[in-house]
Specification:
Order of helices and strands: EEEHHEEHEHHHEHEHEEHHH
Largest sheet: 6 strands, mixed
Strand content: 15-25%
CATH class of the largest domain: Alpha Beta
Shape: globular
Radius of gyration: 20 Å
CATH superfamily of the largest domain: P-loop containing nucleotide triphosphate hydrolases
Structural class: alpha/beta
């Protein structure tokens, strides 16, 4: 059974235009899935639907079904869904409400009724996972943007969610902070089996970590699959082509020129290794 399943799901806010239109999608347990697409494609709304904020918080009208860990979100409260789905908003600072780092994580545990006697241990574990050990007494206002984001993530992780949903989490981070965050998410995914669903506009940045791309356009699901299949589809059908990473543009051009199919290029090192191998074969021929 998939961790996340949308079945013929459509949604509109207060206006009649559908923001999501008849979405059918499965996200398997333990996957690292990335929602991509142009502005206004419905990416954020898809995340909100998985988190239960659509329609519970935003209202509107919906059809079809969203299931999280086998349970329809329409039949659950947001509080119940939050026990399974941890959410990090694009404007993550709005999720910070206390004075110190340890109080912030403890607050998330108090909200779900965790025994106060267990709180200290869980706070320590969550801060350790995100690299904030030693920051317990620090004022939240003294943290950098990247540290604040890690604190939000720690608060979410403390509640032991099976699924993490993040809406453009790197929009306010520099390249170093972006790489650090995605390495952390990849570790949580691989070592703890947490299913990751993230919206990201910079495909090249997240390509080394993802195992599923979900391409939306004008509220419709265009294609979902392994990254190399989705990127090839985008190039062949000229759907959101401006988002194809330069490395993959080069790969697809060379494949067309040489009539060879290359292995996936997730990093520059992958490209260099394969091109060196091809050139070596040419020299030996």
């Amino acid at each position: 059974m998939p961790d996340i399943a949308l079945q013929n799901f459509s949604y509109a806010y207060t206006h009649p235009k559908k923001v999501l239109d008849n979405i059918n999608l499965s996200i398997e347990k333990g996957s690292f899935s990335v929602v991509i697409g142009p502005s206004g494609a419905g990416k954020t709304t898809l995340c909100l639907a998985v988190a239960g904020a659509v329609p519970h918080y935003y209202g509107g009208s919906s059809a079809g079904q969203v299931q999280v860990a086998g349970t329809p979100t329409q039949q659950s409260t947001m509080q119940q869904i939050a026990l399974t789905v941890g959410t990090v908003l694009q404007d993550y600072e709005t999720q910070l409400v206390t004075m110190t780092v340890e109080e912030e994580v403890a607050f998330s545990l108090e909200n779900i009724g965790i025994d106060p006697l267990k709180t200290a241990v869980l706070v320590k574990e969550a801060l350790s996972k995100v690299g904030l050990t030693g920051f317990e007494k620090e004022a939240v206002t003294s943290l950098s943007g990247g540290q604040k984001q890690r604190l939000v993530l720690a608060s979410v992780l403390a509640t032991n969610p099976k699924i993490l949903v993040l809406d453009e989490p790197t929009s306010a981070l520099d390249p170093e902070g972006t790489q650090s965050l995605y390495k952390l998410l990849s570790e949580l995914n691989k070592e703890h089996g947490i299913t990751i669903l993230v919206v990201e506009h910079d495909i090249a940045t997240i390509l080394p970590y993802a195992d599923q791309f979900i391409l939306l356009e004008e509220g419709k699901l265009i294609i979902s699959g392994i990254p190399e299949d989705v990127l090839t589809f985008m190039a062949n059908h000229q759907v959101f082509p401006e988002a194809i990473p330069p490395l993959w543009q080069l790969k697809l051009m060379l494949e067309g020129f040489t009539q060879q199919t290359f292995n996936p290029w997730y990093t520059e090192e992958d490209a260099i290794t394969q091109l060196h191998h091809i050139l070596q074969e040419e020299e030996d021929a």
